[in-house]
Design a protein that fits this description.
Layout (H helix, E strand, L loop, with lengths): L4 E5 L3 H12 L4 E5 L10 H4 L9 E4 L8 E4 L1 H12 L7 H31 L10 H22 L12 H10 L13 H11 L2 H8 L12 H8 L4
Parallel strand pairs: 1-2
Antiparallel strand pairs: 1-3, 3-4
Length: 235
């Protein structure tokens, strides 16, 4: 009998996407922590699974045709798990198209832009020497605000991002959007986004997924060694 899915993970928004999905889909899994502040993502054994040295990644012993498979990139993992279980992808091809649009909106837009906002608003000014760059801070703060405006208008049309059903698109977007305060955003003019954030946060699977290895999370803004590993130059 195949073992549980192995989740290579650290408690960050990208990691939470997959822990939330596994909880929501009621799939058995074991956590293999990848301490990105300590450089675990550069270990050869992890690079065999995730050649871009980014977590999350998974190994599923019960992959296609019953053979083991490893998957890296959070969007690809979400699509794989949704196809595997037949859950959270909608019921029609139109549903799946809507889900894919918003999933790719997250992986190509919100995630990178919010990540850069976090970097230049919080981490760069705390580095040695400090890199307090007003243009970069304004650039990414403003782009995240634009993206949240897009999301708020979409959520005015339906309960969830891709329609009237909770999907892997919501699982991908929520971990990043839940950090709006750290991105120096406001919800005062985004009532639909505020409503959706609260609705999703109440789901048991989201709560459980968000709590995985929560005690391992550290403040990179105060950790010089982690900054060197995460933000230093590598080939």
């Amino acid at each position: 009998m195949p073992g549980p899915i192995q989740l290579f993970y650290w408690p960050t928004p990208n990691g939470w996407k997959i822990s939330i999905a596994l909880e929501e889909m009621d799939l058995p899994y074991v956590v293999k922590t990848v301490n990105i502040g300590a450089g675990d993502q550069f270990k050869p054994e992890f690079l065999e699974i995730s050649p871009n040295n980014k977590m999350p990644a998974i190994i599923d012993e019960d992959g296609p045709d019953g053979k083991p498979v490893s998957v890296f990139e959070s969007g690809a993992i979400l699509q794989y798990l949704a196809r595997k279980t037949g859950k959270f992808y909608g019921t029609t091809e139109r549903d799946k198209l809507n889900v894919d649009e918003w999933l790719f909106w997250q992986v190509g837009g919100l995630g990178p832009m919010a990540g850069q906002a976090h970097h230049f608003l919080k981490y760069a000014p705390s580095m040695d020497p400090p890199n307090d760059l007003p243009y970069a801070k304004d650039r990414y703060r403003n782009e995240v605000a634009r993206l949240y405006g897009v999301l708020d208008r979409q959520l005015a049309k339906a309960e969830f991002v891709a329609g009237d059903f909770f999907s892997i698109a919501d699982m991908a977007i929520w971990p990043w959007a839940a950090g709006w305060e750290g991105q120096q955003q406001t919800l005062d003019d985004k009532p639909n986004l505020a409503r959706w954030l609260e609705t999703v946060a109440k789901r048991p699977g989201v709560k459980a997924g968000r709590a995985v290895a929560a005690d391992r999370r550290t403040d990179i803004a105060q950790d010089r060694k982690a900054q060197e590993i995460l933000f230093g130059k590598r080939n």
